[in-house]
Structure formats: structure tokens, C-alpha cells
Amino acid sequence: MEEQQLLRDPRIELTSEVIAYGLGAASYDAYTKFIEGLENRDINVDWRYYNDGKAWLGKGLYKWTGSRGGEKEMTVFWLSIWSGFFRVSLFIPEKVRVDALSLPIDDETRKKIEGSHQMGKLKFFPLIFDVQSDKIFGEIYTLIDFKKTLK
Asked: Burial, 80: exposed, middle or buried (Cβ in 10 Å; 0-12, 13-18, 19+)?
């Protein structure tokens, strides 16, 4: 089956039922567990329709209070819904690649970091995870926690 990004109609209201239908039962269970795990990390997912990508995307936002009392926020990852899975996309600053490689991650994720190329002139490299179950949550959460430290 060909990979197909879903949620491309801005007129369809994004609900948990719409997400569940696109993902299917098993992947939706993983999605709800993933969202619950984010709550423990003080991360909220803000869903919006983006005209440039012509799709609904979830922005994983980490918010904190700055030293002067102002509210700060950082986009930690992007979330998209595909036919039968959801995709978590993290963009890690190139200058901390070596630090990312020293994290307690498995060999497959380490190879993903080593093989990821900087995006043009942007000083970030992408890490993309296609998620159907909770098997790789540990890897993703480790990278999310790492990215939060870069604020």
C-alpha cells in the first residue's frame, strides 16, 4: 500500500474520530498513548491547517516561563496523519548532532541521526519516525526531552 498523507481538507473539522478513522484501531491506540506521554513532558499538540503544505499538522509545543517572567514556547516536533500511521518529525540543530549521538538511543536511531542531512541553508537535520505502535516511543521521547533542553 502506498503511503498517503491524510487530513488534507481544511473544511473537515479535526476531531479524534477523524484521526481514529485515518489511523485505524491499532495505530490510533498508539497515537492516544503518544499524546498521553506528551502531557507528562509538558507538551501540547496544536493542530492547524497549513496552506503551504495543504494539510492539517500538529505542532508539538513546549511552553515555559522565561527568566523575566514572559511565556516562551518552542516547537519540539511536527505531527502528521497518514493512512495507517502517524509521522513525528523532529528538526535537530546541526551544532548538537554529536550530543544527540551520545543519547541513550538504539543503533537504528543512531544511524538515522548519522545519515540525516542538513536541510539546505537551514542549520537543522530532520529525524522522521513513522509510528504504528508504541515500540519506538522511548526513542522519540528521548529526542523530545533532548530538544527541550536546547531552549
From this structure: buried
What is the band of 53 on the pLDDT scale with cuts at 50, 70, 90? Answer: confident
Pairing of strands 43-50, 124-131: unpaired
Please tell me the pTM assigned to this model: 0.93
Contacts of 20 (CB under 8 A, 6+ apart): 28
Domain boundaries, the chain: 16-148
Q: Give me the CATH code for the 16-148 domain, please.
A: 3.90.1150
Nearest to 81 by CA among 137, 23, 129: 23
What CA–CA distance (Å, rounded) separates 3 from 109?
Answer: 21
| Grid coordinates of 53 | 503544505
37: enclosing H helix or E strand:
helix 25-39
Of the chain, the end-to-end C-alpha distance in Å amounts to: 39
Rounded to the nearest angstrom, the gap between the alpha carbon of residue 90 and the centroid of all alpha carbons in its chain is 6
pLDDT at position 66 over 90: no
